[in-house]
Amino acid sequence: MNVVAPFTLYDAAGIERVSAQMLAPMARRIDDERHYAEDVMRAYGAAGAYATHLGGVQGGEADLGTAILAMARTSEECLSTGFCVWCQDTLGWYIASSGNDFLKTEILPRVARGEALGGTGMSNPMKAMGEIEPMRLKGERVDGGYRIRGVLPWVSNLVEDGYFGTMFHVAEEGSDSPRRVMAIVHAGWEGIRLKLDHDFVAMGGTATCNVQFRDVFVPDAYVLADPAPAFVRRIRPGFTLLQCGMALGIARKCVELMRQVEGPLGHVNRYLEKQPADIEAALDSLTAEVMELAKTPYDESDAFYLRVLRARLAGSELAVEAAHWAQLHCGARGYVSHGAAQRRLREAYFVAIVTPATKHLRKLIAELEG
Ligand SMILES: Cc1cc2nc3c(=O)[nH]c(=O)nc-3n(C[C@H](O)[C@H](O)[C@H](O)COP(=O)(O)OP(=O)(O)OC[C@H]3O[C@@H](n4cnc5c(N)ncnc54)[C@H](O)[C@@H]3O)c2cc1C
Asked: From the alpha carbon of 122, which atom of ligand 1 is closest?
């Protein structure tokens, strides 16, 4: 089957235009009103932001580095939207990394162009695989597919005609351990109920939904991997590495915020322990490591995954640290209700708590280090 998809070409000037002219002026509204910037998400798609890492499907290389830098540019302006870019990238990553030609030809090109939006409901399955919490979705084999019940507490970047990748358990006869199956689900299928969940201190503009499954039929054509464990091993470095785009972007903006107050406050800010050049040096070194790792996202070795986990953890720590120092450098002008620094501080903690959260990363690293 021909799976060469007519994806949009990457347009760096277009990404810059969307970031500076559409997203930046809207960032405050996204934060205040929990507004989901759907038009911005679609404009990024038209500029090719969601396609470069899918190159493997088109017979080329999977270029994660460009995808990460595009996400970083978004996250410089607004982390809600930066996270939505990650959600969209991850949806495409699942499909492109699978052996499912139907999804690659019918759904992936629309995801790559931002015409079909969506994300991932993999936090709970990842925590279930790490024995942190029980799996919330249960499936049963039926003619032509699976019937699913359960609830996913949060799936972001989700609109009513959107898609998301997730995993469910299927009881195996004669075995204590259930089979894990990964599939793409359409939010409009019968039995699915979406409820917007906005009750967060930041990140309200992410179209985050609580997704209820009441006997939802998932056809075999939408299955990504059955059983899923080998597939999870294939996609997890890319999944985790892509998240670094959020960390790099927010840290970059925090350096800029610190520099903006050097004129009026530099004479006293110079006594602070961390200066913009310190954060920038850490940022440059992390960017170099992430770009190196981004060249071989399908390396399935434990040694590579360990490096990815360490980079992802360094990203969480840098995002929070950069936002902390930006707040101290900006002082009261960053602490007012519309101050950029306090927004970045609230957003930065999300990088550290989204799955894999800091504690989960440290658990995985400890296990791999033996
Ligand atoms: C804005 C936002 C967007 C998200 N988007 C996605 C997404 O697109 N896809 C996805 O899979 N996950 C998403 N998540 C979930 C996220 O990835 C993490 O799983 C979540 O932040 C908790 O991770 P943790 O490991 O810190 O778990 P912890 O917070 O340590 O523990 C999680 C457990 O606590 C329970 N819990 C949650 N809230 C409460 C509460 N108020 N009171 C008591 N118990 C509670 C949960 O049921 C869960 O079992 C999102 C979370 C947020 C905040």
From this structure: 11
The DSSP-derived string for 63-108 is: -HHHHHHHHHHHHHH-HHHHHHHHHHHHHHHHHHHSS-HHHHHHTH
Domain boundary among 205, 228, 251: 228
Between 51-65, 72-86, 326-340, the lowest mean confidence (pLDDT) is in 51-65
Q: What is the domain range of residue 38?
A: 12-117
Half-sphere exposure of 330 toward its Cβ, with a 13 Å CA cutoff? Answer: 25
In a domain, 234, yes or no: no
- One domain, residues 247 and 322: yes
- Is the CB of 153 within 6 Å of ligand 1? yes
| 345 and 249 fall within a common domain | yes
Q: Judge whether residue 1 has pLDDT over 50.
A: no
Query: Domain count of the chain?
Result: 3
- Of 201, 228, 255, the position where a domain reaches its end is 228
The pLDDT value recorded for residue 345 is: 98
Amino acid at 233: R
Give the up-direction half-sphere exposure of residue 135: CA atoms within 13 A in the CB hemisphere.
22
Do residues 48 and 113 both lie within one domain?
A: yes
Average pLDDT over residues 337-351: 96
Helices (H) and strands (E) counted in the chain, each on its own, are 16, 8
- Determine the angle formed by the axes of helices 302-330 and 229-242, rounding to 10 degrees: 30
CATH number at residue 162: 2.40.110.10
- Rounded to whole angstroms, the Cα distance separating 220 from 364 reads 32
Residue 366 burial by Cβ neighbours in a 10 Å radius (0-12, 13-18, 19+): exposed
Q: Considering the domain boundaries, does residue 92 fall inside one?
A: yes
Query: Do residues 26 and 142 share a domain?
Result: no
pLDDT at position 56 is: 63
Ligand 1 centre distance from Cα of residue 154 (Å): 7
CA 188 to chain centroid, in Å, comes to: 22
Q: How far is the CA of 353 from the centre of ligand 1 (A)?
A: 8
